[in-house]
Amino acid sequence: MPNISKNIQSAKGLRSGTATISKGKARTDEILRTAKHILVHEGYEKFTLRNIAAKVGIRLGNLQYYYKTKADLLREILQYANEISDLGYGEMFSKVSDNPEDCFRAIVNYLLDDLKQPEVRGLFLQSWALATHDDYAEHCMEETSTHYRDVLAVVIAELTPGLSKRELNDRATLIQSMIEGSRFSLSLKRERLVQRPGLDDLIKDRVYHIATRPGSKKSKVK
Amino acid sequence: MNSAPRRSAKSREPVEVILRAAHELLAFEGYPSFTIRNIAKQAGISVGNVQYYFQSKNALLQELLLFVTERYNREYRRVFSKTADTPKDRFCAFIDFLLSDMTDPLRRGFFFQVWALAPSDNFVEECMEQSFSRYRAAVSELISELRPSLSRAELDKRASAIQSLVEGTQLSLTKKAERFVHRSGIRELVKEEAYAIATTQTK
What we know:
The structure holds 2 protein chains of 2 kinds.
Chain A: H1 2-16, H2 26-42, H3 49-56, H4 60-66, H5 70-95, H6 100-114, H7 118-131, H8 135-159, H9 165-181, E1 187-189, E2 192-194, H10 199-212
Chain B: H1 9-29, H2 36-43, H3 47-53, H4 57-81, H5 87-101, H6 105-117, H7 122-146, H8 152-168, E1 174-176, E2 179-181, H9 186-199
Antiparallel strand pairs in B: 1-2
Helix pairs in contact in B: 1-2, 1-4, 1-6, 2-3, 4-7, 5-7, 5-9, 7-8, 8-9
């Protein structure tokens, strides 16, 4: 038991420990919040330094003192968004018991709910679009994605002991794919994103099954 | 969805040249570079000539979306024309097609650029929703061949889960020499899991 709890704690730490929004940066925080809002709600076309400065209520020159180019600002937003999502993740974890099953279910529920927030969806789509032609963004997204699998792998290892590292990673990849891929079947109804009927429940069933089924056929005698 | 004005066969060629150029530009350089000027340059024709066929950037984008989604629609139907295979073969062939298709950099670039436009552009959002729903309908049909007794609602739910699983693997592809690849073994696992979702007993 003490071991289980230690591993889960460290899985929690993988996320909650990385939040480092520093204090005393009110101005840059405001710029980032506004810029993110424009990007997510009005799209990349409206995402110009001029528009952002106007919305924050500062001069263009003043904005450029903090962020010389649009690309600088975008990178900063990606990082900022990761920190915010770390905070959400950390908060969710702090409420969950250390029981592996509770923990796994809580993560899955959290992820399926989180991706329905219009803000989260907007940022996700913008980031991946950016990643297709910007190496830095690509690196950021790959890191976030790997990290996500690592956390899942730790929790799966507690749920189903004895799996190889390879198998843990495979299962984490399947689970991540199913959850994240469900973003593409959301539809907008009265300003809210809704999932197709019954899909979330089916996904919850399947990912739990993937996480808990016995080890691969290869390790068993046929 | 509104349909494009009919054009004579004679004028189709420049339109296709422009659309192909626009397709590559959007996929590889992103929406910020998607301007009439850049598209004309990429296509090797004059700005005036592009404007003769497409009055605005937005008109061009809409036409491009229809052009690409229509091509996918044909691809989906092509899978069904292979009647000789067993239902399981057909199902697996379709999943294979999807998994291979997403490793193409042109497809990947285009996919993510277009999705990023969806929240702020109703036409794009609707187009993507329609394209995804045709894709789901294709998967539903393949599942119903495997499990003829399932209700429409159950078919749709399973098709949605399979679509999520397959599309979600785009997020863990890695780049190798200008191609995108799935981590080794993942494709087989995805196929197995998709087949399990399709054929599992209802509770």
